[in-house]
Amino acid sequence: MQFHLNGFEPGDPEVADAAQPAATSGCSGAVPEQVDVLIVGCGPAGLTLAAQLSAFPDIKTCIVEQKSGPLLRGQADGIACRTMEMFEAYGFSERVLKEACWINETTFWKPDDKRRENIVRSGRVQDTEEGLSEFPHVVLNQARVHDFFLDVMRKSPAHLEPHYARRLFDLQIAPDAGAGDNADPYRVTARLERLDPAHEGQTETIRARYVVGCDGARSAVRKSIGRALHGDSANHAWGVMDVLAVTDFPDIRFKSLIQSDSDGSIIVIPREGGYLVRLYVELDKLDAGERVSNRNITADNLIAAARRILRPYTLEVKEVAWWSVYEIGQRLCDKFDNVPEQDIQHLPSVFIAGDACHTHSPKAGQGMNVSMQDGFNLGWKLASVLRKRCAPRLLHTYSAERQAVAKELIDFDREWAALLASSKGFDAAETQRYFVRHGRYTAGTAAHYRPSILTGEPTHQHLAAGLKIGMRFHSAPVIRLTDAKPVQLGHVVKADGRWRIFAFAGATDPAAANAGIRTLCDFLAGAGESPVRKYTPDGEDIDSEIDVRAIFQQDHRELAIEVMPSLLLPRKGRYGLCDYEKMFCPDLKGGNDIFTLRGIDRDRGCMVVVRPDQYVAHVLPLDGYAPLAAFFDGFMTRQH
Amino acid sequence: MQFHLNGFEPGDPEVADAAQPAATSGCSGAVPEQVDVLIVGCGPAGLTLAAQLSAFPDIKTCIVEQKSGPLLRGQADGIACRTMEMFEAYGFSERVLKEACWINETTFWKPDDKRRENIVRSGRVQDTEEGLSEFPHVVLNQARVHDFFLDVMRKSPAHLEPHYARRLFDLQIAPDAGAGDNADPYRVTARLERLDPAHEGQTETIRARYVVGCDGARSAVRKSIGRALHGDSANHAWGVMDVLAVTDFPDIRFKSLIQSDSDGSIIVIPREGGYLVRLYVELDKLDAGERVSNRNITADNLIAAARRILRPYTLEVKEVAWWSVYEIGQRLCDKFDNVPEQDIQHLPSVFIAGDACHTHSPKAGQGMNVSMQDGFNLGWKLASVLRKRCAPRLLHTYSAERQAVAKELIDFDREWAALLASSKGFDAAETQRYFVRHGRYTAGTAAHYRPSILTGEPTHQHLAAGLKIGMRFHSAPVIRLTDAKPVQLGHVVKADGRWRIFAFAGATDPAAANAGIRTLCDFLAGAGESPVRKYTPDGEDIDSEIDVRAIFQQDHRELAIEVMPSLLLPRKGRYGLCDYEKMFCPDLKGGNDIFTLRGIDRDRGCMVVVRPDQYVAHVLPLDGYAPLAAFFDGFMTRQH
To answer: Which residues in chain A are contacts of B572 at CB distance < 8 A?
Structure first.
């Protein structure tokens, strides 16, 4: 898709002369008086969370935002492979694939040894390691990512829209009497100040079971629970601008890391529509305690710096769609909820997510991606507790999991920023090696949750060596048995709050009475200890909480569905219709056998338990009924 | 995507409890008094045409429809590969891929030799020949196809919406004084009768330059120009129903052709959402002159017949979302416009498209697909004449091209229907062989336009053996030079009314001064005889009428864009920004070298001229400047 040729226009590029989206979105009325979840902030974390909660019509959510309407331009743009996988779960990956700019290769430029004032290309790498994800690394205006989430919310069962022009004034949290607390469940009272001209200065009060602060680096929610960001007092300043420009720099449509001899460095990020480009321009080092905002830097300063760095190439900027200057500050909060460290008696009622609890250098492209994963992590947990499917102690895992991931990323980010901003000028070859080595961090696929009530011990990890416990489920192509459709196995994991058990068959003929898949299905469908039975409410479809899928080793033409266990052809809905999408076979024709790709034990097979946020929770033998039951017993709530 | 589990619901399955789309679409006011094009009928042909015309804000179009709002259920559902390619040009292929049911394999069932009253599977084939198209064969409710076109129209520069509840009363066509006619260009006057309760019986008059009848088999437009459908007085009756059902028939999610011993045949078409299925049920032979509507057939009759045919399998229908009975009638009009055969002095002002001029047996899945190709064929031609880019005599090619294609398809269809409905019962093995052999017809890729002013002679066909003149441009994967993005070359052909010249480079280094690509670009950019120069209006972008793309033989990392001809890095728009999407390289890593796949002469290279509707118009040597100029001179209008 090509657009922005005649100037940057916000909104859907498929709409000719689109009206500003602000005009037709958002709730116009007052906020509700009482909700299950109040989300403060319509950034990536808040919208990911809101979109997840909106899938459940029985959860009442309110999301508020200081701005008067949806974001239209600027801010983040990098979308990691892992984030694309999450977008697939939310149902809009194909829209992003179509509209975004794909980052296919990254090039490196350094001073020319013969003429140091000029730059020359020193290297070129494929951006994403082969096979790391079924999705590419792309870039797209953050505003469009917001639009896609807003669209999910609008179409959802809850038909959720944000309330704009509200600033959080303060939060009051009623004391929690402990896990057995029988007090008013609406423990948090938030006061909001209205900012729109018609209601300016008016105060609204809203009572909530849970409040989530997705309100950015200066988070009012974070302050209200007495937490703070710790970390660098950064003294490297960078400028960023989205421009429409004419240049003879040949790699303007590649992500390019450029180090000049004496004028600093630039990162070039080509953008959606084929014409727009983002430039990150290194500015001078700040003095101790100095703020970049005091330097009175202008867009013209940034353009001039970019032109010096790009020599001998020219740069003629025709339009600046957005620009900003900032200091790099890698900062982190100790804990992402309102319960003190080590206190497991009390349950959290206030959480923080995204920039409210961790900030990153934009150049590693992490901020928006990590924030959305925060929202995805917290969303299903809140939903499962509110819907009484899981025990509230599950909520402790949000901070534990996401704080550790954020810390690891900030450590990586700090190294990366230091390398880029090194006063000696970074060594291009070293940067390139580092870039390749850390591709998995950049892609968002390195996050690894430690063993917990949600993450099993790796006792049986060898049964599925390529599907690491605690890491995201790495999809692979398969063929659906009942209709021979080529699909990605990972794409069955939608953002619907359900758990999945992927049962990989062993060597036994699946039609045999003693086949591991068959006995597993018998257990899951019939045994009193089966988590499927225990945790599925009466009257719900058999797969409404735990969705069992089978993957066989045979070509799909060799198997007969008539002999398959009934759990794999479940009868659902008011008519008792058969769901034909539970069984898969390897993509043998394409040479992509999932058993080989993911290191599945062909003799024994295995079970891979996958969380609602696409992370592998456990790997167990096909007959590991007791450990399977024990795993779900650790956090789920019996339904009958 | 899974949906319809608890009953068929019309509308967008991504919208929870969607309101009926009828409520929010369509124009509420009166029709305009004067338009460039009046389209009668909001079926597949009419909407394809309307969506094409809506891309041009300078064309005034009105589309009217008898029904009171958009279609919600029933009618056609097969979407051929070729149609998916066209949807890509219209910008919504990814939505159809996501929502539709993919037909991956087709199975064949026949009477069991041991127990003739039972059916057994006799064969199974991959539905679409390997490599036939980059798109699969899919099925989706016709109503959803309409929705996608309506969405294109709504978002388009013309912001076009249908006027519903209008029946065409009559047409009056002012006589055409010949090609040099200076009379009133609004030659056709249409009278419409309003059918909505608020305006029932009121008449509207609308004057149009062109009227297109897309008003179905009983077309009032066709009658008004004195044409008729000729062909079979069919005496085979079929029933069709979309059902939600429970069955133990194992191939219910495959397209299945089932022949019972003594109860007739069924075709099973699995449908979108994972639960719905369409059944075509053979009914008794009609007597001469008998109409199926006189038989008082009910849905229960169809269900009973299906149950008999499916033995020993059971079928329990839970809901009938839609059903109908019809006779197979393969019928065709002699000519698709209002100008008598052999008359080339007079220009057509009324056209007919879709079922108005050809009807097909639904079982070969042709009707909707061929109708949309009619609309695609006519759309760009009308637009180019109205926008004074092409000579009006171009309009003669619509009937010439589409009537021949329809005739060929009806011949195929008739054979196919006869085979299926043969009174002796068709031979399953023969059907399967026939099915495979005719896959290209079914996929819609067999259409072949004869030489004309729009279709060159195959003198140089050997330079691109796999890109047949007169057939649709067969896409192949390539790598875009400037950003290394893997793309489909054919997907650059959007429904934007532009011509393309694909210049495939020969063996010479493209950087060399004498390289064929370079001298071609010099000719196209600079020579007085260049069609790019002659036919591009002043002030328009250089690629606004004829879009030149180059495909090199080298790996993309071996080529430097700095040395490429400026025509391949054109400066466009109000800022003179550079368009970086004109150059491509083979996908060598994927083992899909387009030069090999499409039989391009590696030594000499070639030019492939592609029409706005994706058909190959010509294949010429890279230095075939004179024949290239002569080709465009045959129908284009000099702009300055």
So the answer is: 5
CA distance B552 to B550: 6
CB B62 within 8 A of CB B32: yes
Q: Is the pLDDT of residue B580 over 60?
A: yes
Q: List, in order, residues 6 or more apart from B381 with CB less than 8 Å away.
A: B390, B394, B395, B397, B398
How far apart are alpha carbons A22 and A332 in whole angstroms? 32
pLDDT at B301: 93
* Helical H segments across B131-268, by residue range: 142-155, 220-224
B22 pLDDT band, cuts 50/70/90, is: very low
Partner residue opposite B156 with nearest CB, options A2, A16, A94: A16
Q: How confident is the model at residue A237 (pLDDT cuts 50, 70, 90)?
A: confident
Q: Assess whether pLDDT exceeds 50 at residue A22.
A: no
Residues 6+ apart with CB under 8 A from B392: B179, B347, B385
Q: Are strands A101-103 and A137-139 parallel, antiparallel or unpaired?
A: antiparallel
The number of helix segments (H) and strand segments (E) in chain B equals 14, 29
Nearest residue to B570 (alpha-carbon basis) of A21, A578, A31, A275: A275
CB spacing of A6 vs B574 below 8 angstroms: yes
Q: Hey, of B485, B541, B568, which one would you mutate to test binding to chain A, going by the most A CBs within 10 A of its CB?
A: B485
* Among the partner residues B246, B579, B581, nearest to A576 by beta-carbon distance: B246
Contact check, Cβ <8 Å, A486/B318: no
Cβ distance B246 to A577 less than 8 Å, yes or no, reads yes
Q: Is B337 helix (H, G, I), strand (E, B) or coil?
A: strand
Distance (Å, rounded) from C-alpha A89 to C-alpha A83? 10
Say which range, A349-353, A407-411, A603-607, has the weakest mean pLDDT: A407-411
Asked if B537 contacts B636 with a C-beta cutoff of 8 angstroms, the reply is no
Q: Is the CB of A5 less than 8 angstroms away from the CB of B562?
A: no
Give the C-alpha separation, B616 to B393, whole Å.
Answer: 20
The DSSP secondary-structure symbol of A450 reads P
Return the DSSP state at A455.
B
Q: Are A570 and A564 in contact (CB under 8 A)?
A: no
Position B496 pLDDT exceeds 50: yes
Select from A613, A628, A617, A524 the least CA-distant residue to A568: A524
Maximal CA-CA distance, chain A: 78
| Digit-coded pLDDT (tens) for A166-205 | 999 999 999 875 555 567 899 999 999 999 999 999 999 9
Q: Do B94 and A98 touch (CB under 8 A)?
A: yes
Q: How many CB atoms lie within 10 A of CB A563?
A: 13
Q: Nearest CB to B270: which of A2, A248, A483? A: A483
How far is Cα of residue A409 from the mean position of the Cα atoms in its chain?
14
pTM, to two decimals: 0.95
Cα–Cα distance measured from residue B622 to residue B615, given in angstroms and rounded to the nearest whole number: 19
Q: Would you give the distance in Å from CA A141 to the centre of its chain?
A: 16
Q: Which of A102, A126, A246, A575 to mutate to test the interface with B (most CBs of B within 10 A)?
A: A575
Closest by Cβ to A105, choosing from B5, B484, B576? B484
What residues contact A361, with CB distance under 8 A and at least 6 apart? Answer: A328, A330, A413, A414, A416, A417
The DSSP secondary structure of B392-413, one letter per residue, reads: GGGGHHHHHHHHHHHHHHHHHH
ipTM for this model: 0.94
The count of C-alpha atoms lying within 13 angstroms of the C-alpha of A249, restricted to the half-sphere facing its C-beta, is 37
Q: Average pLDDT in the B429-436 region? A: 70
Residues B592/B477, Cβ–Cβ less than 8 Å: yes
Q: List the helix and strand counts (H, then E) for chain A.
A: 14, 29
CA atoms within 13 A on the CB side of A270: 31
Smallest Cα distance from B532 to chain A, Å: 21
